Amino acid sequence: MSNSATGDRAATDSGASHPAAFLASVVGISAAGMGDLPATSLERLRAADVVIGSWRQLNLIDGEIPAERRPWPSPLLPSIEPLFEEFSGRRIVVLGSGDPMFHGIGTTLSRIFGAANIEVLPLASSVSLACAHLGWPLNDTPVVSLVTRPVSAILPPLDQGGRFLVLGRDETTPGEVSSLLTARGHGGARVHVLSDLGGPDAHTQSYRAAAAEPPRSALNVIAVVPAGNHGRSLLPGLPDDSYDTDEGQLTKADVRAWTVCALAPRPGEHLWDIGGGAGSVAIEWLRSTPGTTAAVFERADHRRATIADNARNLGVEHLEVLGEAPESFGEADTDPDVLFIGGGLTAPGLVEAAWSRLKPGGRLVANAVTVESERVLWRLRDRLGGRITRIQVDSETSIGGYTALRPALPVTQWRVTKRVPESTEQGEKHTP
Which of 33, 71, 168, 422 could form a disulfide with 60 if both were Cys (CB 3.0 to 4.6 A apart)? Predict the structure, then answer.
């Protein structure tokens, strides 16, 4: 959407309290409705030409607001820009729950239109209200939103062993959380369902996960207190039996830990894992560093299904699972910041195609076991630089009544950073 709407409204807005500099004001509203709104938020609503929100939110504003009420269409994201175009030149107020910048519509609108074009007027978030009610420190409380994510997303914080909060999607979320906790051996976990926080109908239910009760409202925050610490570490190097696999298509725990550390994940980065096998490297990339994303490329249909199952079982169901590389590169949502090549090094054109998609300044890590793949790595190192490392792991084994160390196949690893061209204007490229 262009900024023409801003200019049009600036010409027609003669001193109205809704600032003409913004495409929209996003007003946080609680279950208490207009009674909790500060003066500035009330001003924006009274001056609005149209108010957009969910039906639940729209029903919280009373008849003193003359604006047209418009519920969000479904699906939400594709409808946002067309809806703003429809109301171009009019004063728009968008309703958000509590703090719209905490897993809310404010973050979405700021991303689409730019933060400078959106005014956000927050209230206390539902998480702030929940922590105040429970007596938990807000700064030390992990939060998982299930508004758009599957219930398996609670598994990483559950593995950490501490208490955490869950933002519910609707009245089904408390039951889904309790069912998953019970299925994973956490039926003794204490669950608190805090409903309609900040409003006159606020209510809390408390029970053990295995004895879940029907929720009283669709607007819930769920607090989970595990009974003991029976989880798995989020650091890379999970036991090999954490994964379903076939034909030995699994990067073993010690090499996997080394590899994920070599990939050096940072929040916001996107990984391509080429030759996924069981998906273990991409899965532990995602588990180790919140805010990362990843796509796995695997040619075998049954392995792609296994990767998806492994990702679901380990709480990173958002892992993107795609077909054979490089043919499926065009199906990926975005180019990689980081590349891992665990298979296919000898396939003609694969490394070149992957390197061309890696962003400037991005990192590549490749593992080789066979002599033929290792030769490829040395040639690439000679052309592009980087560093070669040999990983040798010996593990104990029994020989009769004695113990010995048996070496695994050594892994040759190449790490390299793709340099940033000195002059992008000249279209300079650096290819393998």
Answer: 33
Per-residue b or e along 72-92, where b marks 16 or more CB atoms closer than 10 Å to that residue's CB: beeeeeeebeebbeebebbbb
- What is the distance between the alpha carbons of residues 121 and 28, in angstroms, rounded to a whole number? 6
Q: Contact at 8 Å (CB) between 364 and 337?
A: no
Of 364, 368, 361, 320, nearest to 340 by C-alpha is: 364
Residue type, 101: M
Peptide bond into 38 cis (omega under 30): no
The model's confidence at residue 248, banded by pLDDT at 50, 70 and 90, is low
Rg over alpha carbons for the chain, rounded to the nearest Å, is 26
Distance CA 307, CA 279 (A): 5
Inter-residue long-range contacts of 8-14, CB under 8 Å, 24+ positions, other chains counted: 8/88, 8/89, 9/89, 9/90, 9/91, 12/89, 13/91
Mean pLDDT in residue range 31-57: 93
Number of neighbouring beta carbons within 10 Å of residue 68: 12
Q: Any idea what DSSP says for residue 246?
A: S
Does residue 407 have a cis bond before it (omega within 30 degrees)?
no
The first and second tokens of residue 213, run together, are 């009760």
Surface-to-core class of residue 406, CB atoms within 10 Å of its CB (0-12 exposed, 13-18 middle, 19+ buried)? exposed
Average pLDDT, the chain: 90
**β-strands 190-195, 203-208 pairing:** antiparallel
pLDDT tens-digit map of 341-389: 998 899 999 999 999 999 999 999 999 999 999 999 999 999 999 999 9
Q: How far is CA 55 from CA 26, 59, 60, 70, 374, in A?
A: 16, 6, 9, 8, 60
Backbone phi and psi for residue 136, each to the nearest 5 degrees, phi listed first? -95, 140
Average pLDDT over residues 51-64: 92
CB 37 within 8 A of CB 45: yes
Distances (CA, A) of 172 to 150, 178, 189: 12, 10, 18
